[in-house]
Amino acid sequence: MSTLPNKGEPITTTPSSPASKRRPILWVRNRWVLVGLVVAFAVLFPWLVDRPRFWIPNIGIRTLWLGTIAMSLVFLNKYVGLLSLAQVTFAGIAAYGVGYFSVTLGLPYLLSIPIGILIGTLAGFLVALIAVRTKAIYFLMITLAIGQVFFSYASQAIEVTGARRGLSPILREDYGFVDFRTLEVFYYAALLAVVLLYLLCHYLANTSFGFALQGIRDSPDRMAALGYRVNRYRVAAVTFAAFVASVGGMILVFDRSQVDPDVVSLGSTLDVLIAAVVGGVGSLGGVFLGAVVLALLDNFAQDFTERYQTLTGVIFIVVLLFAPAGLAGVGGQVTRAIRKRRDRAAPPPPEHQEPQAPVPAESAIQKGNQQ
Amino acid sequence: MPDSTHALRALDVSKTFGGVRAIKGVSLDIAWGERISVIGTNGAGKSTLFNAIAGVFPVTSGTIELFGEDATRLPTAARAKRGLARTFQTSRLFEGLTSAENVYVALGGTEFSGHLLRSSRRTPERWLRVEELLDRVGLSGRGPMIVADLSHGEQRQLELAMALALQPKLLMLDEPAAGFSPAERQHLSALLRDLPRDITLLLIEHDMDIALAVADRVVVMHDGEKILEGSPADIRASERVREIYLGGSIDDAA
């Protein structure tokens, strides 16, 4: 049998070779190093900026809630293969929960916050019961429709939602041991919640549950044949994503000090979608990159152009064209490009140097089968 | 009347797709531990019968008993939980996962619902089972490879490992040798013959090679009907089968 290396990289059949195919060259090798760097930057951020009064809420906290809601969307998309446009709605329902129970009924926030999260999560569960029976574009449409229905409701149900005016004021309080009125305290509390949510998402993806979700994403028929009740898993995943979005909604509502229909408008849905796509729909952490880009655009684009929405659109298109995996996928793209160039520059070693040339993986596999 | 002497009893099963009768009143009994091959040309209704037994779609008429219990209306997942494992003709593996993770997921359907939220790193005993299953089908060392990087033959082997992960009472294989080289066929044939006898086997094969080598009894389907049933020797000798497999000499294949 000839052992000519095939066109791609000649992989030798050492035990580690299959794994090396996935490993990036240039990018940070360990995910946790990268996460640590980003978190360290986020912790130092209030001291790195010239005007903390402006930067902490407008860029920092906005990035945190926008990113969290977008992360819940990416979790569903990456691990379950469902694209949900109702994540902002779940966050908004949770926010309205806080508004209704504290502003209207006068409950303390320490009670209304868990209630709000619970209501947002429950909304996710109920939507999931209907929506998981549909797939792909239909799932997207049904979640979009549900979001719009809630937007109409929020705009009109004056007794519950305060209609156009919304519910306010929803103010951060001083609890003695922590003073949430301070921007820094609020920022760090939100950051802590976001880091915990990220870790939770990541943990869940690596449990039996998470693997099952990925199986359902790739082949629901087979999962059924393996004994999984596919729709139950989908419902559980959508409910969990609604929980993540609801926590994002908590940060949002205390950032804005009020909740109104704008929170659940189509525009907000698009913001979340743009943050997810710009950051990278395949990366849980990448969405925060997308969220920060969006927050920066919102705040600074007006300084040098009147058409800042056009600019956002153009940036969106540029990312889609040149980095389909989002900003978080750029590392992998660069790696592949370098690998390609290196392979072209250095063709496989001539055979006379090494009589026992490395066996390409594929021919070795065939050999294995014949034994 | 359900009875427990058979792993599977399909009684007068018919399936109609939009006016086309894919299978017409097929009955099939398989005793515990028996190995049955269903053969026939393309369009004979083999796969339809297979999918009807697996519960992919409801049958138009007739009943299906699994392990002494009426399963005609049971959903796919429930049949799997009762001990029915199947492979797919066109690979529907989990493309984004590694071979080992594929088998890991396969183990989960019936086995560890209680440990759903435990990190997969904390389940060494399951990864050991994964390794065992990969070894068993001849995929030793291929665990860390992404499924998309496996060869066609390896993907079929992985199919088998995933079906075996269920510890099935009834194992249904849908053309497991499709696209195999002769060497791979021999390997698969040996693998199937070596399966423990407590696994009842239902094999759908377009090709006679493996079908006759593995089976205790062979069922021949043609045009949606069961036309013949007998030992591999009977089938080999049958004029009717020769006619159906026009021109193909069975003796050469076997």
UniProtKB/TrEMBL annotation, chain A:
Pfam families: BPD_transp_2 (PF02653)
Comp. bias (Polar residues): 1-19
GO cellular component assignments: plasma membrane
Swiss-Prot/TrEMBL keywords: Cell membrane, Membrane, Transmembrane, Transmembrane helix
Cellular localization per UniProt: Cell membrane
Region (Disordered): 1-20, 340-371
Membrane-spanning parts: 32-49, 55-76, 83-103, 109-130, 137-158, 185-213, 233-254, 274-297, 309-332
Gene Ontology MF terms: branched-chain amino acid transmembrane transporter activity
InterPro entries: ABC_transp_permease (IPR001851), LivM-like (IPR043428)
Membrane topology recorded in Swiss-Prot or TrEMBL: Multi-pass membrane protein
CDD domains: TM_PBP1_LivM_like
Annotated PANTHER family: ABC TRANSPORTER ATP-BINDING PROTEIN (PTHR30482:SF17), HIGH-AFFINITY BRANCHED-CHAIN AMINO ACID TRANSPORT SYSTEM PERMEASE (PTHR30482)
Protein name: Branched-chain amino acid ABC transporter permease
High-level lineage: Bacteria, Bacillati, Actinomycetota, Actinomycetes, Micrococcales
From TrEMBL, chain B:
Organism: Naasia lichenicola
Domain of life of the native organism: Bacteria
Pfam families: ABC_tran (PF00005), BCA_ABC_TP_C (PF12399)
Domain ABC transporter: 8-248
Name of the protein in question: ABC transporter ATP-binding protein
GO molecular function, a single term: ATP binding
GO cellular component entries: plasma membrane
Database matches in Gene3D superfamilies: P-loop containing nucleotide triphosphate hydrolases (3.40.50.300)
Keyword Transport: yes
One GO biological process term: L-isoleucine import across plasma membrane
Keywords, sorted A to Z: ATP-binding, Nucleotide-binding, Transport
